[in-house]
Amino acid sequence: MGLEIKMFRCGPLDNGVYVLYDRDLGTAVIVDPSFDYEPVLAFIAAGAFRLEAIVNTHGHFDHMVGNAACGAAAPEAPIFLHPDDAELLKVAPRQAALFGLSVTPSPPPDRWFSEGEDVTLAGTPWHVLHVPGHSPGSVCLLRPGVLIGGDVLFQGSIGRTDLPGGDGPLLLTGIREKLLVLPGETVVYPGHGPATTIGRERAYNPFLA
Description:
The chain is of the alpha/beta class. The strands form 3 sheets. The chain has a 6-stranded mixed beta sheet with strand order 1-2-3-4-5-6, with helices on one face. It has a 6-stranded mixed beta sheet with strand order 7-8-9-10-13-14. A two-stranded antiparallel ribbon has the order 11-12. It contains 5 helices and 14 strands. β7 and β8 (124-130) form a beta hairpin. Helix content is 23%, strand content 30%. The chain has one domain (3-208): Metallo-beta-lactamase, Chain A (4-Layer Sandwich).
């Protein structure tokens, strides 16, 4: 059957948490484990999948809340992050407290993303695009027809840039140079909100006009 993607809507910030999985291989990857991650782990357990990795598209607290618990469920599963967000990951509990929320500190990452590399997740090659601006180390994961976008690009919007490490012009440049050049039918799975396509955002996103 090959790669499948399951989306969960999790927590008070309505995060999109994704499970990339392959039934034939019996493997799964969690992308951005947020609050209320229990149904995500239950889905993996029900499918008898081996959790082979935990991916953080960036280091903000709402995208790493479940790192510790998911990592405890599969101690051999490495945590992926871009090195430019290493400090954000460390201060995530303090950042969450500013929003009146509490998070468990994350274990340190085991594997660092780098721009332009190819990584295999759930049996499928993904190309890493480093698109800073929402955070210094924000990444998107690309395979033909599919983009796991984190908080870079949303339906009708873009990632906020008013948090520490944000940079609006840098984010817009990255989106235009790395994302909008993709085929229009590419489906974007964002960190918040509904899925969209590159073609839709190229045509209608007011932030990209």
